[in-house]
Each structure stands twice: as structure tokens, then as C-alpha cells.
Amino acid sequence: MSMLKPIPSLLLALAFAAPAALAEPPGLGKPIAETEIKAWDIGILPDGTGLPAGSGTAEQGAKIYAEKCVACHGEGGKGGISAALVGAPPIKSIDATKTVANFWGYSTTVFDYVRRAMPWMSPRTLTDDEVYALTAFILAQNKIIGDNDVMNAQTLPKVKMPNADNFIIKFPDKI
Ligand code: HEC
After folding, report:
1. Cβ distance 84 to 73 under 8 Å?
2. How far apart (Å, rounded) are the C-alpha atoms in residues 165 and 163?
3. Taking a C-beta distance cutoff of 8 angstroms, is the pair 136, 151 a contact?
4. What does the alpha-carbon distance between residue 38 and residue 86 come to, in Å, rounded to a whole number?
5. In this structure, are residues 79 and 87 in contact, taking their beta carbons and an 8 Å threshold?
6. Which residue in 6, 47, 81, 125 is a FRET match for 68, CA 20 to 30 A apart?
7. Site to substitute for ligand 1 among 64, 85, 99, 110, most atoms within 8 A of C-beta
8. 76-85 LR contacts (CB < 8 Å, sep 24+)
9. What's the CA gap between 84 and 78, in Å, rounded?
10. Probe residue for ligand 1, chosen from 120, 134, 141 as the CB with the greatest number of ligand atoms within 8 Å
């Protein structure tokens, strides 16, 4: 029996040694620079938090649209090989066609989405001014804003989307 006695104390020693061993970093990777984080940190909140400087109008957006978007989204945004960006067919069932105008809850999502995902073949190539202009174009074509309204970090969050009140927010105080 006396042979087994050292075992509990050995286990204890190991138990105390383990956290110290875990605290050692594995020596992989390197700290990320703030500027590198910024390039990925492009989320925009419904209240406009995160919107960059810059501005654009529907007229400017129409020109960019004709160059970079029309091939897929069709003349005037009415749809082509890709989704219609203009038009609001009524939502009568879960299978209804959901568009920016009949479904999207926040105007700032248009900016966020176009900047991060479009044009489909070369996302993240648009300047912030171009994205504001395209956002203005899409909203104006849908008659959600006027043709001459300037979209920027102050005006865009104030644009209320037609479907904004039809979402059920589970934790309203969290947004
Ligand atoms: C090569 C084809 C192509 C081009 C060019 C293109 N898009 Fe798209 N776009 C798509 C596809 C495909 C989707 C659907 C993506 C998905 O559902 O994941 C889409 C989705 C969208 C949506 C969301 C529509 C919705 O109701 O869900 C918007 C807004 C949009 N594009 C804007 C633009 C703008 C603005 C441009 C020009 C800068 C552009 N797109 C250029 C293919 C394209």
C-alpha cells in the first residue's frame, strides 16, 4: 500500500501545473493591425452606424448602373438574369417574390449589401460615392425617395422602407 501513496500528490502537482501550461500561447499567427481590421469591419447598422463619408444622387447612380449593373439586373432595375431591384409585388404568401421595395426593412441595408457584394463578379470595387449613388438610384426608382434627393450618412438612415413596420423584433431594446 505504501507504494501508492505518492500518486495523489503527483496528481495534485499535475492539476496545478496544467493551467500554467495552457496559458502559454501556441506561438502561431501574429497580431492583426487596426487598418487590416478596418478593411473587414464594414457592417452598417439600421441607424446608420458605420456609414462612411461621401454622397450620391439617383442621377449619378443611373450612369453607374448602366455601366456595372444593367447586364444582370435589367433596364431600370426591372430584373434580368438576376433579381429585380425595382418593383414591389404584393407579399401574399411565404413564396412571394421579395424585393428591396416590398421586403427590405432598412434603407441602410441597400448600401451595406451593394458595397459588400456587388457587382457580383467584382465585389468591393465600388467607391463609397458610387455606392451612395447606386443606393439613391435604387430607392428613387422604387419611389421611396425623390429623384433629386442626396444620399449620405445623415440622409440615408432617415429613409423609411415601406415594409419597415412589418417585422417582428424579438428583442426590440437590443437594437
Ligand atoms: C454578374 C451579374 C451581376 C451584376 C453585374 C450585378 N449583380 Fe446584383 N445581384 C446578382 C445576383 C446573382 C444577386 C443575388 C445574390 C444572392 O441572392 O445571393 C444579386 C443581388 C443584388 C441585390 C439584392 C437583391 C435582392 O432583392 O435580394 C442588389 C440590391 C444588387 N444585386 C445590386 C446590384 C448593383 C447596384 C449592381 C451594380 C453595381 C449589381 N447588383 C451588379 C448579380 C449581379
Report:
1. yes
2. 6
3. yes
4. 32
5. yes
6. 47
7. 85
8. 76/141, 77/137, 77/138, 77/141, 82/120, 85/138, 85/141, 85/142
9. 5
10. 120
| Grid coordinates of 42 | 464594414
Measure 101 CA to ligand 1 centroid, in angstroms. 14
Residue 151 Cα to ligand 1 midpoint, Å, equals 20
Residue 45 has φ and ψ, to the nearest 5°, of -90, 160
Query: What is the spatial distance between Cα 148 and Cα 129, in angstroms, rounded to a whole number?
Result: 15
The pLDDT of residue 153: 98
Residue nearest to atom 25 of ligand 1 (CA): 99
Could you tell me if 136 and 62 are in contact, meaning their C-beta atoms sit under 8 angstroms apart? no
